[in-house]
Amino acid sequence: MHTTPDTRPAVVLLHSSLSSRSQWTTLMAEQEASYRFIAIDLLGYGKSAFPTEAAAAGYTLAYEADAVAAALASHLDAGEQFHLVGHSYGGATALRLARQMRERVLSLSVFEPVAFHLLPASDAGRREIEAVVADINAATSADDATRAFIDYWNRAGAFDALPEVQRQRFTSGIAKVKLDFVALLGEPARVPDMAQLDVPALVMAGAKGPASTRRVAETLAAALPQAQFTLTPGGHMAPITHAADINQVLLGFLENQRLPA
Q: How confident is the model at residue 258 (pLDDT cuts 50, 70, 90)?
């Protein structure tokens, strides 16, 4: 049986912590004629299994990226190239994955990647997020830990304002969030390592995002050899709360990659 090859560019999508591949549903539905989207559930989220006990003991971004690479093997041919997109923790994972699979990454797009390992210990943005992590780890209940996490990225009172079913869903994922922070703060890559990613890159940050991720975005944009920095409406969760705005910027960037050099 003859099948027509799929000529649509492959675009891999990585979501934020406490989210899942479903955060990209609108983008995929609206643009499926132009792109072959591959949205992956990161470990412990959506339908993906929680990391093994052995892996969780010293969790790393390398382990997370390896899991994404393994998942991609069922979607892409060996050696097939793709565009890579990531939001928040998915953005930090994308940076790690891009370095591990450099020859296959055609472009890189990240929205406020939480790559705090790029900031020096003295940086105010890093100190800010380390204080949040300390609050999460010191919380006496999963609810309190989740409240600290959700309120930081959104606004004070955001967690308590959510419907009960959503609060429960977020709280059930806080154990993985803690591992995400272990991986992020323990990642050995530093600013000079980003020079390896000599691909077209789009770095986005929300105008109302926190200082910690704005500092990461600005630092990363300056370090990547072919990066453009774009400030967008919304805050850290803009790919969800302001999806139309973010998708427009992202698609404009992807379309530029299809133009002849």
A: confident
User: Helix 61-72 vs helix 174-186: angle between axes, to the nearest 10 degrees?
Assistant: 110
Quote the DSSP letter at residue 162: S
Q: What angle do CA 37, 38, 43 make, to 5 degrees?
A: 150
* Distance between CA atoms of residues 17 and 237, nearest Å: 11
Query: Helices marked H in the chain — which ranges?
Result: 25-31, 53-56, 61-72, 89-100, 124-138, 142-153, 164-172, 174-186, 211-223, 238-241, 243-258
Give CA separation, 57 vs 38, 51, 129, 173, 177, in Å. Answer: 29, 10, 22, 17, 14
User: Could you tell me the pLDDT band of residue 261, with boundaries at 50, 70 and 90?
Assistant: low
Per-residue pLDDT tens over the stretch 17-49 = 999 999 999 999 999 999 999 999 999 999 999
> What domains appear along the chain, each with residue ranges and CATH number?
10-120+189-258 (3.40.50.1820)
The angle at the Cα of 65, spanning 102 to 80, to the nearest 5 degrees, equals: 45
Cα 72 → chain centroid: 16
Q: Residue 55: what pLDDT? A: 87
Taking Cα atoms as reference points, which of 107, 98, 70 lies closest to residue 228?
107
* Separation between Cα atoms, residue 10 and residue 100, nearest integer Å: 18
C-beta separation of 84 from 98 below 8 A: yes
Distance CA(29)–CA(89), nearest Å, equals 23
